[in-house]
């Protein structure tokens, strides 16, 4: 029980000293400080494997009184140094109660009667060794040393994991930026050939004598329709790229006012349609008003488009409150979709309905997802064939003081 209590106390000491620390050598120093606080007259060392030798990187201040020993340890100990070799062979801590500097092949260490070593693993490989020198090592002190060693090992593993995640995030961000720049450049470059296709197609039509035959007219129509569709694709790709590149301009956004404006604009475009709008009270949230408007335009215009086969279309808009977020939902009684293809809905150029039945570039939902993701939210979709669909997105509840954080999201 006494040893267990000592282990817990050592763990607490280390946790308090190492709180928030991510530098490997600083963590090793914190572990040494814990031992120095708990043990009198102890020497603690942190060795890292470098250039085929165990080199001293962090040490307690008492070693400065032995400059020759300190210089020797910094220069590095061979891999076959007995106490380290035993540790490498077993992968377990090694405790030497009757220290013999000649037998252990570490000169100028006669002052120690007891030496303890702890292997520090990363990915199941020993990357460093934590060592403690004392005049005597009791069972109580051994338990404390084990506890500090375990705590240091866990901290080093967390640091390594965080380092890898940061590196992967930076690589992904760089790749995304490169891809977006490439997309933007290519989309711009495609403008000229498409313009040439349309221009020279028109010149060719006008240069042909007499009335054109039905087959020739159909060929020209195919050229013009295909070029127009390509122009539309270029527009949406450029829009998607701009959405990703521009910083968020965060402010209070009244979703109710946005929805009211959007559905009135959509109503003007389909004056002969019978559409019942059922819009519940919507919250005011923090976000980029222009980008959130794009999301709402996408969801509401899709609801209008996919209900046009209905004599009486019904489009509902409402919000549901959760402790940390709002969920905004748009439901329609349109053609719906097959749930097995739900995963394709928010992907680029993925269509669940033919171009002939429902026009569009199949990019708007992908753009909406990107906008919502930049606001730390998620998009959702539920539906059944011929039974309508419900699309939604979440937005976190954030204070004005947190708005600056949103601008950094990518």
UniProtKB/TrEMBL annotation:
The Histidine kinase domain is annotated at 185-399
- According to its UniProt record, the EC number is 2.7.13.3
Tell me the keywords, alphabetical order. Answer: Kinase, Phosphoprotein, Plasmid, Transferase
Q: Which Gene3D superfamilies match?
A: 1.10.287.130, Histidine kinase-like ATPase, C-terminal domain
Top EC category: transferase
Name of this protein: histidine kinase
> Among its keywords, does the record have Isomerase?
no
InterPro entries per the record? BphY/WalK/GraS-like, HATPase_C_sf, HATPase_dom, His_kinase_dom, HisK_dim/P_dom, HisK_dim/P_sf, Sig_transdc_His_kin-like_C
What terms describe the molecular function in GO for this protein? phosphorelay response regulator activity; phosphorelay sensor kinase activity; protein kinase activator activity
Biological processes per GO annotation: osmosensory signaling via phosphorelay pathway
Q: Can you state which reaction this protein catalyses?
A: ATP + protein L-histidine = ADP + protein N-phospho-L-histidine
Q: Name one Pfam family in it.
A: HATPase_c
